[in-house]
Amino acid sequence: MSFLYEERASSSVFVDVVWHTHDTSDGTYLASADARWDMIFTIAGDGHRVLLSGPSTLPTPVPYTAGNRNVGIRFAPGAYFTHVPVGAMRDHTERLAMPSPGLFLLGGSAWPFPGTDDELVDALVESFAHDGLLAHDDVVEAALDGDPVPLSPRSVERHFTHATGMSPREVRRIARAREAVARLQSGEAIADVAHHLGYADQSHLTRELKRLTGYTPGQSQGRGEPV
To answer: How far apart are CA 158 and CA 145, in angstroms?
Structure first.
């Protein structure tokens, strides 16, 4: 791994984790499908950059450059931006316009670039929510957590489609693959992971991980990068 990585949990209902990286060389990271919205702030030698990514269904190559510092927000299940239909952002990353090094444009408004300051990142998320640019669908998160949802399956599917652009089945497949990688990286045996997570067999696990993360179970065990 050619970058230093750390992450922290967030108390915000809109955020899963906030992560920081410092790129120590040039390279490309293969980001696994995550079915989440993501935002990345980069401080580079040639200026600042802000990226907004919609929910992803496939592995995505992410280039990195020595010396860059990045802060990323992985939004929570059910969190979504309201200024654009999710279908337009599924498997798509948009570089946001910056009228100055300290401002970026999103949803028709200018927002302060937070740099690597966690407090400013948290405040920015709350400002998005306060202005109605960021919303959270409790049905999506409850359904993924296995909590009772007093809605028909069709209604639940509409909630998922609106927030993620995917069906509940697609989102659960991605979540299961990411959990499988986390278990493999923690040292759990491939056969045990396949059994515990309900894959038909090791071949099924291999196909799913290759499709959704870009790596086989064996490669995932030795992968030092975050999922």
So the answer is: 17
Which residue in this structure is represented by tokens 């209604």? 155
CATH fold of 168-221 reads: Arc Repressor Mutant, subunit A (1.10.10)
Q: HSE-up of 65 (CA within 13 Å, CB side)?
A: 8
- Enter the tokens of residue 47: 């200026």
Q: Specify the amino acid at residue 183.
A: R
Domains of the chain, residue spans = 3-136, 168-221
Distance of alpha carbon 197 from alpha carbon 118, whole angstroms:
34
Assess contact for 44 and 101: CB atoms under 8 A. no
Distance CA 196, CA 191 (A): 9
Q: Are 89 and 165 in contact (CB under 8 A)?
A: yes
Q: Quick one: 184 exposed, middle or buried, by C-beta within 10 A (0-12, 13-18, 19+)? A: buried
Q: From first to last of its 227 residues, what are the pLDDT tens digits of the chain?
A: 588 899 999 989 999 999 999 999 999 999 999 999 999 999 998 899 999 999 999 999 999 899 999 999 999 999 999 999 999 999 999 999 999 999 999 999 999 999 999 999 999 999 999 999 999 999 999 998 888 888 999 999 999 999 999 999 999 999 999 999 999 999 999 999 999 999 999 999 999 999 999 999 999 998 877 88
Distance, in Å, from the CA atom of 121 to the CA atom of 11, rounded to the nearest integer, reads: 13
